[in-house]
Structures are given as C-alpha cells and as structure tokens.
Amino acid sequence: MQSRRNFIAAGSLAVGAALLARQALGAAPTKNRRIVLAKRPQGEPTPADFRLEETPIPALKDGEILMQTVWLSLDPYMRGRMSEGPSYAASTGLNEVMIGGTVSRVVASRNPKFSEGDMVLSYSGWQEYQISNGGGITKLDPRIPRPSYALGVLGMPGITAYVGTLDIGQPKEGETLVVAAATGAVGSVVGQIAKIKGLRAVGIAGGKEKCDYAVKELGFDACIDHRDANMPALLKAACPKGIDVYFENVGGAVWDAVVPLINTHARIPLCGLIAQYNATSLPAGPDRSSQLMGMFLVKQVKVQGFIISNYFHRMPAFLGDMSQWMQAGRIKYREDITRGLENAPQAFMGLFKGSNFGKLLVQVAD
Amino acid sequence: MQSRRNFIAAGSLAVGAALLARQALGAAPTKNRRIVLAKRPQGEPTPADFRLEETPIPALKDGEILMQTVWLSLDPYMRGRMSEGPSYAASTGLNEVMIGGTVSRVVASRNPKFSEGDMVLSYSGWQEYQISNGGGITKLDPRIPRPSYALGVLGMPGITAYVGTLDIGQPKEGETLVVAAATGAVGSVVGQIAKIKGLRAVGIAGGKEKCDYAVKELGFDACIDHRDANMPALLKAACPKGIDVYFENVGGAVWDAVVPLINTHARIPLCGLIAQYNATSLPAGPDRSSQLMGMFLVKQVKVQGFIISNYFHRMPAFLGDMSQWMQAGRIKYREDITRGLENAPQAFMGLFKGSNFGKLLVQVAD
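The joint structure predicted for all components is written out below.
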C-alpha cells in the first residue's frame, strides 16, 4: 500500500538534501506527470473520470529511490478500484493517483539495495515518476527476456492463467476447456497451457481477426466470435463433449452461453467478471441465482473465486515452467502498446470494448 | 439400478419353482403392497401423486433373495426423482415403485451369499417386499448398533454430513459454521462434527422446540428459528465473525440470509436445496446470479456441489470416526418414526414443511 501513496504528501521540501541529491544525479527530473481519479465512474469510465496533473518531484531522503515509469500495465481489475463498493482491495481515493503495476527504471538511489539503472517491478501507478523506500519493489527476474513481459505473460496475468488453469482447474487430458478474452493477457496463456496439457481448448474473442489469431497462432482448437448473434450455438458446436473447465474472466453473455454446456464435475476457476464491472444495476428478472446453485449441485461443479496475490508462493514454479514453454515456442504472446501517459485513459476505456489486441500496456518512457 | 426395477415385470410365474420355493419357506408371503408414482407433482407433492397397490410375489429363482422391508428412509432427494427434468440420477417412471433406501430382512434365499434372517441395506423402495439377485445389497456392518441407523447417522445422511463438512468444508478451529435443518439427519451431524473440530456451530431450524434441542442436546452454540421474521438479523447476531463454512442443504430464504455474512475464503459444500425442490418457476425480481458470481470472486469463495455416491470410498473412515464419536456420546441422534407403509406419502410431504423432528423413517415391519 505504501508504494501507492502520493509522494508529494510525504513531507516538505528538505532543501539541503535536495541539492545534494540533484548534484549527484546531474540533470535530475523535477516534474512528475500523473493521472488521478477525478471522479468515480457511473457504469463505463469516461475521460471526465481522469485528470492529468503535473506535480513537483521532491528531493530523495536517505533510503529512498526515484523510479521512472517505463511500462504501465492496464488491467480490468483497475475498474474495481475506481468504485467505492467493497472489493478485495481498498478503492483508490478521489484525487489519488490511479494504481497500476509498472516496470520502472531506478534513476536515482539513496538506498543501498538499488542502483541507478536497475529495472524494477513496481506499483507506481499512472505516473511518470515515483519515490519509494524500496518496500515492495523487486528487481526484474533475469529469466524475463523483455522487461514488459514482467507485466504480462511472465507477470500477474501469466500467473493468474497458470494458477487458475492448473491449481484450480485441475485439467485432465482429453477434457474441454473454454476461456473468453482468448487473445488477452490471461486468456491466451490459459488456452495455450490447456493445449500443453492435452485438452481441447476453445476460445471466445471479439471479431474475426482475434479469432483467427487464437486458432492459427495460439493453437486453440476453435474460437468463437462473441459478437456473432449465434454465439451460444457456435459455442455448443465447438464443445461437442461439453465443458469440463471454464476459466471465468468475463461473465455476462458468455457465461450465459457456457452454463448449459457445463459437464458433471466441471471446475470453474473464477478470476474476473469484466463484462459486469461497469454494471450499475442488476439485470431484470427472473432471478436465476437459485437455478445456478441448483446446477452446481446437480452437476457437482466446483466454483472457486481466486485473487492471484494469494498464490504468489507459486511464482517459482510458474516462472520455471513458463520460461521453458516460451523458449520451446509453446507459449506465444502479443502486446498492444499505447505510447504516452496521457493516452492511458483512452486505452483503459478500450479494454471494456475489447479494443485492445493482446496485453494492454502504456509505454511511458523509452 | 437393477434393484429399483419392478420385480413383477421380471417374468411370468414359474409355477413349479414357486411351489418348491414356498415349500422351503413355510408360510411364505404371497402379496406385496407398494406405493407407486401415480403422477408427477406440480410444486409440492400431494396425496394424488402416489398410489398404493397390491401385487403378487412371484417365486424365487435360483440366485434370488426375497427381502421384507423393515425400515424405509424418506429423504428430500426423492422429490427430484419424481420430476422429469434432468438431475444426477434417472427419474422414477410413472407407475413405478417410489425409490428409497431400506433396511430389509432376508426372508427367503436361493442365493448362497445370503441367509434367512440376514439384515441388509437395500434400495427396495416404498414397498413391503422385494426380490433381488443380491446385486447392490449389503449386509449391515456389525458396528451399527441399531439397524435403522444404517439409513441415518451411520448411513447416507451421516456420510453426507461427514464428507461435506470435513472433505469439502475444510473446517479450521475457531471458524464459524452454519447449517440449516439443524435437527435433521444431515444437519444435526454437521453441527456436531463442527463442534468436535472446535468451530462455532450455528444452526437454523423451524420452531422453538427444534432450536432448543439443537442447542441443549446437540451442543450447537446458537440456533435460529427460520420462521422468525427477523431471521436474517438473528443469524447475523449469532455469527459475529461472519460465516466460514456454510453447509448448504436448503437454499431459499436461508441462503439469502447467509450470503451477506460469507467471509473471505469461505467454503460452501452444496449437498441439497430442499427449499427449491418444489419450485415451479424462478423467483421474480432482478437476476442476482451475476451478483452471486461477483461475491464468489471478491470473497474468493469455494462452492462445491457434491453427490454422496461419489464419496463412498470414505465409508471406512466415516464409520470408524462416527462409531467412536457415538460411543463417546459426542454425536447424538434422533429419529422420527412413522409406522405403516400406507403412511409414507403423508410423512414424505411433511418433510418439505419441516414436520419431522429428526431423521424421518417409516417402520414397514417389526
């Protein structure tokens, strides 16, 4: 949590220390640009919910580092933090910096654990610079071939796919797995792990281009366009033996199409419900929640919600397996890069429309 | 399945064999009374859905046994078999004998594995006699102190409570468990196992008498009367630290009261939804199924439907633990006995009104 704090509030300018620090840095940056939560969205976020600000960068104190954001990850979970309702993590306060995982470069250090030039994984949020005491900041694992991968296939989305598919999904050879957002950061890895484990992998994605990519590049056995009015029938045809593992990351209409195809003893790792994140009210009746529980009972389904931060003990196994699979060409990965911090809100809003094609990142600096 | 078949249809009377068999038996029974499914219920079952019939008992063939039903178990799951919709087991055909677990006495045997006088666990259904080739029939375990217990605390309801609470519920000392139908065959055992494992056990039952029994006799920490209009508030007050394990066997209004109290990482073993079994349509009002999935996600809940027939490998552990706990006085058990096969429909209909107090049984013969 500390790394999310607005460093401007950390104390008044200590002029002597600042002078010392800047002499050591040479042309040290003095201004930070950041995007704050201007107001809480009603339904889908709009540009008015964000505000770009410029703030001074205070001098480093002993033990602190100054990090420049190189890569900012944009992820669906951020929508939840913009609301006030209860969630598994505290919501972002009004006028606070939007949170987010980053790959950052240490540009000044008064902390012996970090050196200028270190590339680190941080939660600096939607801003160009952040000062930290180093808590929660980790140097990039040397197995990560490109720094931005630490925010995707070899980072939180990757381990979410890994833990959800393997630990919770318990896939068995010959079974059928379905995942939506099949070309996204999580879904693409889920489908490819399913193939490695000998399952039939069926993806759902928005539009022909993404579906073609899922089948031809990622190796899915089939991919259904959720914009097609016949999506439920197409999904059924693509799952002739029903669904044994449904990796749930979207909810909404896809879930409705999946439910009738769920097999006895199916597992449903539940990691996100992006289609519902912007909902302001419940869908009109009838209330199907009792029907849903009845289905879980009759089909002996296991549904398990999981938050990946509780599975970080799986990181070594994950990095070991994934590095190997990537080197062997068995996991492919695609990034969708927006340049410039000022374009982050637009890119983020596109997430909920499926505008991105691959893991969504903002390149904040070179 | 074979044991559910109507033995009358098994073939025409083989007169010679019948004479031989009856000579061996002495005063062998010649007439069977049985209750068949007359029509499929709409909503709650009514007397018109059942029909009492008298049929002749054919002679035994080589390898067969004739069993007299002593105890017939009446259980909520039978409601599902009366409907045509998909369930985890085939529905009972019209004019077929109502299915049901029984404790029966072998009154004639042409099968070397069974002797006259053997007490067996069978699925003879709602009838006085059944002929079987012995398939699926097991002699009562000698650890069972009273034959009728094989249909309750030491039978299917007992192992359902055991597996759901321990294997799926994964209870931890100091946690809070909630179960409805707290004085019933399953719920009473769930609560007592929770106490043995060091949990706070909160029951829900219908009426003061049952609630008093749950607390004073069974050792629940609290028991809420679901007929009280303040049930949700009372349940909340009884669970000051929320709910970690909710053993779901009723659904309906109890589930609605439980949902807001569910803790992060809660487990929900789902073994029945008796409040919904008679539903003919979905409840009106906003569709809360997406909200439910959202709660499972945010709270990282595990929901797992289970059918006890898939857990019979746990029978030895179950019988071992339960026998020991019963001998030590740590598990108490109550039966609600109706005499006479003809009274089975009325007793069964009472199950859905909570008329029974303890495990519901029909004593068909002495």
